[in-house]
Amino acid sequence: MFEVPGTKDLPVDNVGCVSNSSFSWVRKFLITPKQQQTYQSLPTNAANTASNDAFLLPVRPFSDSCEENCRRLLGIYKYEENLNGRKKVSMFKVVWRFTRTRLLIASLFQCLAVLLAFMGLLVFSNLTIESMQTVVTRSCANCSAISNCSNVPAMILGIQFSMNRYVCNSTAKVDASDGRGDRLSLSMGVFLCFFMAFMFNSVKNWLNLRTAIRLRTAILSSVYKRAMKSSVINQVSAHQIITMANEESESVFQIVQSGVQMIGIVFGIILSFVSGLILLSLSGILPLVSSLPLLLLLLVTGTISKTYYRKFLSYGALKLSTLEDICVNFKNVKTLQLETILSKRFIDYLNRQYQALQWSNIYSTKFSGGVTSAILVGGLYLIWCDVNIKTESTEVLTLLLIYAYLVQRITLDFCLCIHHILQGRASLEKLKQSYQLSTPDSVRLKPNRENLAIQMNSLEAEWPSMDGAKSNGFRLSLDSFEIVQGQFIGVTGNSGAGKTTLLHTILRNTEVKKGKVLQRGKIAFFPSKLVLMNSSLKENVLFGESMDAKR
């Protein structure tokens, strides 16, 4: 029977950590109860021998994504550094080369979503209005008062729009059901276009999220690798560099999202100009063009106020969260005879918060969206239910509202993208400094015995001083320190005995004054503060695996 050879080594990446895919791979081969029974049935003298093969893990058949992403990003950075020089390396170019394939695919979905939105506006909505105008024209074809009818389009009357302002005095009845089936079909086309645009936007967001996860994984792992290999002799230490990379890499998703949206925004601006020119040819659109800036101002103001409204709520909630602390300390306040003053000030503060929330609610999208919805519903009622309405402007009101909404979305997305791109540029420049750390100890010697993982003999090390200042006097001295491969070592001692200094000496974060740190293989460093995914606790525990209730 063919047996796959096993290994007892934990699958640690070259970057020095167990990433998500490695962890998921290990979880597939957890020790089962049957393996535990097999191990317990072994002879006592065989417990520490090679016969405990029940704990062997199959050799990993694939390369880890964390390791591959780290290698790719560092390779791209080194290529840009050799091409443009150390000082002229652009992190935007590095990020673009790393993510360009996925970004181009996501941009394609973004452009398709914008195209479908404008297609629903121009094609189906225009055909709906033409169908409505056809019904009115057909009903007025045999009308004796056609010269005084304001329902007939200007091209039929042969005069310019708004030159005839008389009210139609015809008593002919109009069949409101005429052409209603066609208009319903065309409205379904509008709905389908916007629904597909929403679906393409969802796919785009999913691709951007996957791209951002890959990019952030590559940034964290590559910075970790450079920090662990560097000899830190300046103002910061390795864990500070990793903490900075963890904080600055949080803007990665906004960088990816904004880069894709900018392509869709440029495409949307072109379509908005084309759509505006097409809409100007419709009868009845000219009087409503003057109201377009007003509609845009209403929508933009509502969206901006919504953002500040949410920020105001969060700020107010943060302030009001101190109520519990105030109540706890209120007993101490009473002893100082200040409870009346404090209570009055607190009530006044709550009243100011409540009044501010009321005014903010007026300018929120709940109000502006209600006004827009009322206009839209009223226009639809006039178009669909009252075909005898005596104005041409209401027939294009819906088109103008949809057009204003699309232009408003493009304008706001453009402003947000500029903000996120500038913020991301500053974060990438900070991360760039992590890739330029010096590594003077690039050639590492190995221990003299094959079974040794770490060896230090006659070693003296101390923490680096800033700007060449004098040492603080503390120095770690070791006569002999060896770690055998597969051996568990526990370092104990009093506070200040040098346990942390020993760890950072192995990681080469200290200055070695005498001796050498010899290392064979890889070192995995697990700090007390872990880097978690920006997700729920359940997702961090599962690491992409399906939920198993038994485990």
TrEMBL record:
One of its GO terms (molecular function) is ABC-type transporter activity. InterPro entries: ABC1_TM_dom, ABC1_TM_sf, ABC_transporter-like_ATP-bd, ABC_transporter_C-like, P-loop_NTPase. Keywords: ATP-binding, Membrane, Nucleotide-binding, Transmembrane, Transmembrane helix, Transport. The keyword Cell inner membrane does not apply. SUPFAM superfamilies: ABC transporter transmembrane region, P-loop containing nucleoside triphosphate hydrolases. GO terms for cellular component: membrane. The chain crosses the membrane at residues 103-124, 186-207, 263-286, 367-384, 396-422. Gene3D superfamilies: ABC transporter type 1, transmembrane domain, P-loop containing nucleotide triphosphate hydrolases. This is AAEL015644-PA. It comes from Aedes aegypti.
